[in-house]
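Deviation from plan, reported transparently: zinc ion complex.
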Amino acid sequence: MLFMKAGSVRSRFFWAVILLLGGLLVSGVIYLEAATRFEPRTLQLVPGPLVLDRKGRILRLIPGLQGQRLVKLPEGKIPSLVAQAFIAAEDQRFWCHPGIDAVAVLRAAGQNLAAGRIVSGASTLTMQLSRLAYPGPRTYHRKILEAVRSLRIEQTLSKEEVLRAYLDRVPLGGNLVGVETASLAYFNKSASDLTPGEAASLAALAKAPTAWRPWGPRADRLAARQRLILGRMAQLGFLSPQELAAARQEPLVFHGAGRGAPILPFQAPHLVQIALSRGKSSRTTQGRLATTLDLSLQQRVEALVRSHRTQLARAGASQAAAVVVDNRTMAVLALVGSLHYGPRDQGFNNGVTALRSPGSTLKPFLYAQALDQGFSSAAVLEDVERHYRTPRGEFNPANFDRSSHGPVSFREALGNSLNLSAVHLLNQVGPSAYYDTLIRLHLINHPERGPEHYGLGLVVGNPEVTLLQLTAAYATLANGGLYRPLRFTSGDPVDPGVQVFSPQAAYIVTDILADPLARTRIFGGAPAMNPVCRLALKTGTSTRYRDCWCVAYSPEFTIAVWVGNFNGQPTARLSGASGAAPIVAEIAHEVFAGTVPQDFPRPQGIISRNVCSFSGLVPGPGCIHQRQELFIAGAEPTQVCTYHQPRDPWHRMPTLYAGWLHKRHGQGGEGRFRLAGFPLDLDKVFPPVQPAASAPPKPASRNGKVSLGLGGAGAGLPRFNPPAPGEVPLVSITYPLNGDRFQLLPGADSVRLTLKADCRMPVPAITWLVNGREQAATAPPYELTLDLARGRYHLTAVAPDGRGDAVEVMVE
Ligand SMILES: [Zn+2]
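Because the crystal trials were delayed, the predicted structure below was used instead.
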């Protein structure tokens, strides 16, 4: 029993030990399994994109999420010299071992025991990969785990995959990760293009990327190891003796400079920003983002824009921006966002995406639309001072040269960028219709405001736009009226586009913008406005000379420049023509590089006709001055000139221009202009002293009804007939406007107003009625000066036949 008892105690102890050992083993296995687990996912790095130009030149390498700069090796075969250099340096039996190199371990163990510390790691590339993927302190314990994990990695991945993962992971100085990244950074080439010496130096650098950095104090250690690795490559048969000798002769040149990592390219920063911010459309392929930029053109344009800095600064402009676009593909070839990407003059700001007032640069789109609405390209536009009522108050446009040019041709009005005629044209085209066109051209950035917000100011720079938007809109004219969005990356699709204008309208507007003679009146003296090559060209200047713009295009390219200050300060009277056009001319010189721009292809349906230079009508026998004009077939004039008579030297203009001619006559500059239907002696047409108001008119009684003069209060007074709806009025009161309110100045008991009327027919005089009472009759220019006291006034202008116009105003 005792024996039995003792036996059973022993047996129980035995089983307890077995159980304990078993338990330990199981938990050990479980622990080891967990501690050496390998998830292929951990090898996946999210690289920041490598941004390239259209020819694959590096613009910028964006750091990845973990802050590292990484460009993965391109897919396909691993560059053999790189593989050989790293294998020779780190793991000569890489292709045969299962993840652990037993030979190396034994040798290392001997060395470490002898030294009493770790001097040799015997780390295979697989073990190094394991450490890179699961970083931690370098202890014996971790080394064992690494070794086990390496076995598991090798079971999951092929040798090729292990090598590739390692080469994409290995740190090579600063935040550079991977051999492709280091090749680009240190040698400015892809890893597949490295020489044996360069490949060996990267393998050498992997040993101590910080301590042995190429520009550090211990760069000699790097060189020594590189020679060692080259030797081993030869021993292993990777290099022939001749190749080894050549590699040792090869001077090793690292690109970049600095104490730490090399300086990677940082090109076209503003374009890179845009390309990166475009989300889906800038999806990268293998971490590479190919932009449409042409780096060499970009560098030339940058230098050129920058060369204007001093000159611009003298004129009160601290910044400039420029864009060059290939019209055929809408690819942005060059983009300069500021004079220098830096803190100076807010240079980090991107001038091509800043919303600014475009001045006159939106005018060509109005003219193109007018042509599509049936306007004749030889139409005479009234360039006379006018007051307009808009939802935002009265609008009194003025020309850049502060004068008015009377009857001007469509061509000259656009070429010289005359504001008065542009607003006159907009009033006829209709602000809403024009607004819709601007929407289609993507030039309205606040559609919630609606056309009323801008009113007639739509055509003189009220809607703010960006230089990029303007460039795309002008490319529309270059592309026969087809709007397509700009492209920044090769991944951006080539959009089929929207036909905003007919090809004919786009062609005629382009022909005008490319016609130096059409702009001589205002821009004749500016050399930059007469480029050597045939380019369509338009400038713009915003209020108080804040923004200076110039856009030029050929069928192939659109070039746009903005000059001004990012803080909105006005320049010192710099204009689009004096500030931006010279830069555009120089860029054009670079872009065309000695080649001649193509002619704009003439679409079907364009005809050429002779017209009278003054009236734009079919020349009659008296029309001495004639010129050729282009028309959309069907819009050519059919009426014979009314300005000229045979053997008569005078230009007899419609009565509409009475006010304009009167002013000009007062300045002695009437030339041969006369009013049709009136004597040739302008002193007789315009009496030197207009009849003064006989007595100050009385305001209407506060509540009483205002007499409109219907029926007439006195003998001979014409009966007033307001124009029927749709009828072109014979007489229109152009000032004041119906509903105008005038404030009395402090201390004054009346305001002085000069009433003005337009007349479409040569009537000798019109009669003015104030609150139904005849005030005076005035001959051309049909103006009457009155002093009006506080109160309400109904003003009527009536032609002898009774046709007329009426407005109501308040003096408060
Ligand atoms: Zn004529």
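The two ends are 132 Å apart (CA to CA). We consider this an acceptable substitute for the interim report.
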